[in-house]
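Hey, sorry to bother you again with one of my protein questions. I've been staring at a protein lately and its backbone has me curious. I owe you a coffee for this, so here goes:
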Amino acid sequence: MTRNRPVPAEDWNGRPTRIVNAPPAQPRQQPDRAEDRPARLTVGVVGAGRVGPALAASLQLAGHRPVAVSAVSDASRRRAAALLPDVPVVEPARVLALADLVLLTVPDDALPGLVEGLADTGAVRPGQLLVHTSGRYGVRVLDPARRAGALPLALHPAMTFTGTSVDVQRLAGCSFGVTAPDELRLAAEALVIEMGGEPEWIAEENRPLYHAALALGANHLVTLVAQAMELLRSAGVGAPDRMLGPLLGAALDNALRSGDAALTGPVARGDAGTVAAHVAELHKHAPATVAGYLAMARATADRALAHGLLKPELAQDLLGVLAEGDDHR
């Protein structure tokens, strides 16, 4: 069930509190223990891509205070200025010096080196919440910072981001893939709920598989839709987005509700002649799309066969057409 802001949460001791309405934190020494942490946190962002500023803006709505962001490119500086106005742009080490909670929102491949560099230079402070948003990694990638006393969390929002304020609204009801040490599970859950999200606990060893599933569903969907729109334009359709919208919306809803039982179309029916015509036209007008069409058609045929939707006697001709499609000139 989706939770709406403001939300009751629990503090680091598990005691009921309302973080949104907590009194302002008084200046004091940084706590070394998570259980001593104040209800409101100062927030920093290392890497002002599409994700970090949106999450920090969402935490700001929940009562936390963004205090610093690091940004290199002009585009990232513009995003920071739009979503986190009046928050200073500083070097990464300075972000860590100012913030109780630091969001590391850099590309996956850059994350291990960033963490090692911050730990080696002494930028990490004991008791500091260090949160990365990579889907690929769990908390082990933060081990260098953890040895320096940081409190590691992996909070990955399962959503595509635009880099604009619309992302903050879209976080409502968004699932987060969460990996955290046992002693920080309450903290991780509270942060996700404050951003309007729903925590889904992912074991450390399952993070790559979890991320592959999301990439398969979301990233490849964008490619498929873009190709479909291009083909419709080539076929003379003036508004391919308007044509595809209801169709794809219904297909997605049916797939989420019914899984493989929602399969329709010529592959699931075993219409080998229709599939052969598709392949011939794609070779003629859009050869770059053929490999993807054939791969998805084979995967669809396999699933349709396994679930009794595609008759075995029709599958042989269909699979023959798909095999011939690779050699079509």
